[in-house]
Amino acid sequence: VATPQPVVIEMLKMAKVTKDDVVYDLGCGDGRIVIMAAKLFGARGVGVDIDPIRIRESNENARKAGVTERVKFFQGDLFKTNLSEASVVTLYLFHELNMALRPKLFNELKPGTRIVSHDFDMGDWKPDNKGEVLNVKYHYPDRAGYVRDAPFYYWVIPANVAGLWRWSVPASTGERQYTLRLDQKFQEIS
After folding, report:
1. Which residues are registered as beta bridge partners of 29?
2. Distance in angstroms (rounded) separating the CA atoms of residues 93 and 100
């Protein structure tokens, strides 16, 4: 099931996509998210899908949209795809896939990389923001023209600051030593 165009646009707006971004869409389907990122925001994009028919469709849609110089699509396993170039990652995957993908996102993406997921969250990793497009028409194979609200979730990959931090400050009686222990769970620090 493809992400409806109004949801694509709102997801890309929430991620604040610009011409300087590289947008990766994991499970890209017909390529609409990557194509829209290139066409509306001038971004470069990469779409990955396991289905070769979807990749052919994505390439044809990019040609029709006139953005072939800014996007590329390839058939592959999203769990084996190198994501380190991405500044934005978009997803429309089931919750279980998002959860299985989460460690890869943390290991490969740079701090500050934005992630937007249509419909499905990331479990106990609380989103930094949420959005919803109301009364969206979906084209399910068994329910043509089905209308429902479309939530989406936004996260930013945090820098890893957990651990012991030590520093010293000059004082009139010599140096004062300080130690700070930071615990981190996703973007929350204590």
Report:
1. none
2. 11
